[in-house]
Amino acid sequence: MSQTTIFELIGYLGSLLVIVSMLMTSVVKLRIINTIGSVIFGLYALLIHSYPTAVLQLFLIIINVINLYKLFSVKKEFNVVKLCGNDLFAKHFLEQNAQDIKKYFPDFSELDQSDTIYLVNSHSTCAGILVAKTETANPQTLFVKLDYTTPAYRDTSVAKFLFTYLEAQGLQTFRVAATNLVPAHEKYLKKMGFVKKEDFYEKHSFNK
């Protein structure tokens, strides 16, 4: 393999990572992958002596690092608002995010009056929503219908806060139907400590 070919492969790899970063729904992942892509593409620019391109990549790296620092240094503070199934604001929030919700929860259709809604807010921004039903036979068990977080907060921080809050309210068991789950949500459930049991995923409270 010639030196020119190796240089071109490095350039293609850097370009590919920059493109992939634009597909990320998480802002943190976007910045990290974009930075890696810019470093590799900047190396390629230096190898072929394209210094203006190398300078451009340097500035992109600096911008990404600054933004990552801001993302990690700002303390996320959340609060939960408990709502009933016919709440108009919850319906509006679901309608506004319907397209993104459909990607991860294809079976979710609409709210039911008997649903319990937990709306998670970060300062003045609505970061996520959990729609669930309490099992009649066991009021300490929550059957989760929807556990959605907006892209800007999709780093499990909302989920960790919410489940800690729910456990503090006395809820001991959380269940999610295992049918028709998209791979991304299934991966999230496992990361959050859910274990598959027959036709559902289950998570127990640490306070149980």
Description:
It is built from 7 helices and 7 strands, in the order αααβααβββαβαββ. The protein has 208 residues and is α+β, with helices and mostly antiparallel strands. α1 runs antiparallel to α2. The radius of gyration is 22 Å and the shape is elongated. It starts with a helix and ends with a strand. The model has no long low-confidence stretch (mean pLDDT 89).
Radius of gyration: 22 Å
Report, as a whole number of angstroms, the end-to-end distance: 61 Å
Characterize the biggest β-sheet.
Answer: 7 strands, mixed
Number of strands: 7
**Can you list the strand order of the major beta sheet?**
1-2-3-4-5-7-6
* Tally of contiguous helical segments: 7
DSSP helix fraction: 40-55%
Tell me, briefly, the overall form: elongated
Write the layout of secondary structure elements.
Elements: H1 3-21, H2 27-47, H3 51-73, E1 78-84, H4 88-96, H5 98-104, E2 116-122, E3 125-134, E4 141-149, H6 157-168, E5 173-177, H7 183-191, E6 195-197, E7 200-204
Parallel strand pairs: 4-5
Antiparallel strand pairs: 1-2, 2-3, 3-4, 5-7, 6-7
Helix pairs in contact: 1-2, 2-3
Describe what is shown at a glance.
The chain has 208 residues and is an alpha+beta fold.
